Amino acid sequence: MNTDLFKKIIAGEIPCEKVYEDDVAFAFLDINPVNPGHTLVIPKKWSSGFLDADKDTICELIPAIQKVAKAVKEATGADGINIIQNEGEAAGQKVFHLHFHVIPRFVDDGLEHWYGKAVDDETAKTLAEKIRHSITRS
Ligand code: AMP
């Protein structure tokens, strides 16, 4: 499991194309961009992903993500932006240090979104109840 890579990038032990840094956040170009300008925004404080990050880190990181997203949009002339976080291997996470992908999108860039699946009402109701219950206990 890759947990150290981004720590090394922050420390300057692995080179990167840095675009932003403050006390909490660090942002650099993705080495394998979905579109040119694809940027990763990460907290300096390590967590594996979003779910185990502490609230203060999340609160302080969000403005940096917005700042970088605005800059990526302006610099690339993108028509839109995807901000994505993959949580867990099943969701496509490869590097286990919380990171948000800021991906510039263009009207004709050929990328497709995933498709929705139909769910019957009973299943949706049961799941909504379980989620509400889980939130109440948290
Ligand atoms: P994820 O699949 O959400 O864990 O995304 C990991 C991302 O890290 C991928 O988009 C990779 O292209 C990117 N990545 C891996 N190694 C590097 C590196 N040395 N510098 C910049 N980006 C990297």
Q: Can you walk me through this structure?
A:
The protein is an alpha+beta fold. The longest helix has 22 residues. The protein is globular. It binds adenosine monophosphate (AMP). The site of adenosine monophosphate has 12 residues, from loops.
Principal-axes shape call: globular
Distance between the termini: 28 Å
| Class computed from helices, strands and strand pairing | alpha+beta
Indicate the percent of residues in helices: 25-40%
The low-confidence runs, each spanning 5 or more residues with pLDDT under 50, are none
Which strand order spans the largest sheet, edge to edge or round the barrel? 1-2-3-5-4
What ligand molecules are bound, each kind once? adenosine monophosphate
Topology of this protein?
Layout: H1 5-10, E1 18-21, E2 25-29, E3 39-43, H2 55-76, E4 80-84, E5 100-105, H3 121-137
Antiparallel strand pairs: 1-2, 2-3, 3-5, 4-5
The chain binds adenosine monophosphate.
